Amino acid sequence: MFPYVSPPDESAKRDALARQDRLTKPAGALGKLEQLGVWVASCQGVCPPKPFTRPRVIVFAGDHGIAAKGVSAYPTEVTGQMVANFLNGGAAVNVLATTAGATVRVVDMSVASDVAESVAEFKVRKSSGSIDHEDALTEDEVKAAVEAGKTIADQEVDGGADLLIAGDMGIGNTTPAAVLVAALTGAEPVAVVGRGTGIDDQTWMRKTAAIRDALRRARQVSAEPMALLKTTAGADIAAMAGFLAQASVRKTPVILDGVVSTAAALVAEELAPGARLWWVAGHQSTEPSHKLALEQLGLEPLLEMDMRLGEGSGALAAFPLVAMATRILAEMATFQDANISGPAD
């Protein structure tokens, strides 16, 4: 389904590492900002790297049948209401994106209610199956969702996007995300159950039972990424997996957000091995399964801000660091440029 994923450019990486040592600072003094700048240069295939001009956030929206089992603090209708809020510019992702100089696109993949036609081009269905006892999607639906994610990534890259963020919106979506993480990391249900939207103890117990039952089904197909998406993920998460995989095929850097996008990333890495080299982790959320997923991908979060909103918010909070790291490598003077004595031989 996905072609070979080329790794970021090694020659540009070597040039970036060498340039970091020539900048007017002690070697390594800017710590992880230096590593970030090198990563950007290797993704762009050029050193010095170019400042980002069109960062884009794609919010994948969808409802989940498991929400009917009382696993969330909010009712399902909130998903459609939040889509309208995104379109009106009133959500956290809108404010953060404006501040960061990014723009937001919303895609309705499987919202249970009817939302604006302008965002429903790729809609696969309304909601998903209740994954504790039935598949989330049919075979045709999961293929359509992954293909939609691929197409959306192509549209964005062809439209000039030079950095991508996958955001999520869906009541109950941390339940399938936790199941995906557990299925692909071998974790037990109790290790992946978080508080999601801020659930109480009774709701947490219902969520744990739902994840336990869904995980029994998911583990039977955990070696087959498309079957795992069909069994466990809604159309929103399946589309996100296709989007993340295709972004890497198209050699476009991605900042991962929270547990939902990172769960999709785990599957994307299975669909397109090597895709993870094109991603950085924007933050580590308070969801316990997020830490497990990042460890599985070998990614270290840029921020830990106790965030758990989704929408792409954590990735957007981290974007200024990526932008600063890029400009440091590109615009900071070298010792020779500034006529400053470098480190002693």
Automatic annotation (TrEMBL):
<keyword id="KW-0808">Transferase</keyword>
<dbReference type="Pfam" id="PF02277">
    <property type="entry name" value="DBI_PRT"/>
</dbReference>
<comment type="pathway">
    <text>Nucleoside biosynthesis; alpha-ribazole biosynthesis; alpha-ribazole from 5,6-dimethylbenzimidazole: step 1/2.</text>
</comment>
<feature type="active site" description="Proton acceptor">
    <location>
        <position position="311"/>
    </location>
</feature>
<keyword id="KW-0328">Glycosyltransferase</keyword>
<dbReference type="InterPro" id="IPR036087">
    <property type="entry name" value="Nict_dMeBzImd_PRibTrfase_sf"/>
</dbReference>
<dbReference type="InterPro" id="IPR017846">
    <property type="entry name" value="Nict_dMeBzImd_PRibTrfase_bact"/>
</dbReference>
<comment type="similarity">
    <text>Belongs to the CobT family.</text>
</comment>
<comment type="function">
    <text>Catalyzes the synthesis of alpha-ribazole-5'-phosphate from nicotinate mononucleotide (NAMN) and 5,6-dimethylbenzimidazole (DMB).</text>
</comment>
<keyword id="KW-0169">Cobalamin biosynthesis</keyword>
<protein>
    <recommendedName>
        <fullName>Nicotinate-nucleotide--dimethylbenzimidazole phosphoribosyltransferase</fullName>
        <ecNumber>2.4.2.21</ecNumber>
    </recommendedName>
</protein>
<dbReference type="InterPro" id="IPR003200">
    <property type="entry name" value="Nict_dMeBzImd_PRibTrfase"/>
</dbReference>
<dbReference type="GO" id="GO:0009236">
    <property type="term" value="P:cobalamin biosynthetic process"/>
</dbReference>
<dbReference type="GO" id="GO:0008939">
    <property type="term" value="F:nicotinate-nucleotide-dimethylbenzimidazole phosphoribosyltransferase activity"/>
</dbReference>
<dbReference type="InterPro" id="IPR023195">
    <property type="entry name" value="Nict_dMeBzImd_PRibTrfase_N"/>
</dbReference>
